[in-house]
Amino acid sequence: MNIQKNTCRVALVQAEPALFDKAACVEKALDYIGRAAAQGAELIVFPELFVPGYPIGMNFGFSVGKRTAPGRADWKRYYDASMTEGDAGFMKLSRAAVEAKAYVSLGFSQQDEVSGTLYNSNVIFSPDGTWKIHRKLKPTGSERVVWGDAHRDYFPVTSTPWGPIGSLICWESYMPLARVALYQKGITIYISPNTNDNPEWQATIQHIAIEGKCYFINADMLVRKSSYPAGLKTAEDLEKLPDMVCRGGSCIIDPFGHYQTEPVWDREELILAELDMSLPISCKMEHDAVGHYARPDVLELIVHE
User: Fold this and answer.
1) Mean pLDDT of all residues in the chain?
2) Across the strands, what pairs with 207?
3) 28, 136, 213, 233: which is the annotated catalytic residue?
4) Is residue 100 left, alpha or beta, with left meaning phi > 0 and alpha meaning psi from -120 to 50?
């Protein structure tokens, strides 16, 4: 495990995206990148689908065996607000990472370059101007009516001075073999862009940090009922939502399963932390899930990448 730098200064962004507005979401991300860089951040992490926001509570006119024209119109509006790899907004974010001299992890709804399918994706921009994209393997529940299953970009990791870092999006972390696929690549920092503000999730992320002996970056967002734009054709879907639809809960867990930063609820915040990068190795003294505490002669994971 090649760790060249003993500390990592992280800025975790808990913020409210401008739902269905790609340009506004990109500008808000650029502002936060600038603010984080000004405070010395070396790794800047945003939530799931920060561009153009997570449309919690919408069903886009789908029911079993049926769909509607108004729902189709809303889905097309969301599609138009999604980013393509390499488009103008995407490249602004890449340049911002270069200028900040930081690694930037950001969730976005990704238009496929060829097909008409959207993917729930996360990109990690590097300060050298390159990037790697991970697509969510299996959209959860009715997310499947909005985004497709990944057919590439399954488990990319980014080499950093703190060792390899990678991401799983939201409930991908409930796929045990997906977690192991990242552990097998030696990740020291496990990034989780998500929209989980339920208390059970906090137990999950502590378990994963202990299991993987890695830092767990829990990147959640705020969504208010007032976040949704005017003119949606299926606005009746939103009538029963609470005023605060997603409360956040962003935090950082250390490799012992302890809170490095406590969960933040119900407000935007730039969460700063200094990670001791000796821990992901020293914690493996008695337990290394893919090393001395594994039995590859009995159990084997085969990943089709």
Assistant:
1) 96
2) none
3) 136
4) alpha
DSSP readout, 67-99?
Answer: --HHHHHHHHHHHHHSEETTSHHHHHHHHHHHH
Q: For the stretch 271-285, what's the b/e string if a residue is b when 16 or more beta carbons lie within 10 angstroms of its beta carbon? A: bebebebebbeebbe
Query: In the annotation, is 48 catalytic?
Result: yes
Closest to 50 measured CA to CA, from 28, 75, 80, 31:
28
Dihedral-angle region of residue 294 (phi above 0 means left; psi in -120 to 50 means alpha; beta otherwise): beta
Coil, helix or strand at residue 179:
helix
pLDDT digits (tens, 9 = 90+) for 123-155: 999 999 999 999 999 999 999 999 999 998 999
Residue 300 known to be catalytic: no
Rounded Cα gap, residues 279 and 254, in angstroms: 8
Q: Which of 170, 214, 246, 251 is catalytic?
A: 170
Residue 63 confidence (pLDDT): 86
% of the chain surpassing 90 pLDDT = 94
pLDDT tens track for 261-275: 999 999 999 999 999
- Of 48, 143, 172, 211, the catalytic one is 48
Told to judge if 92 belongs to the known catalytic residues of this protein, a careful annotator would answer no
Report the predicted TM-score, pTM, of the whole model to 2 decimal places: 0.97
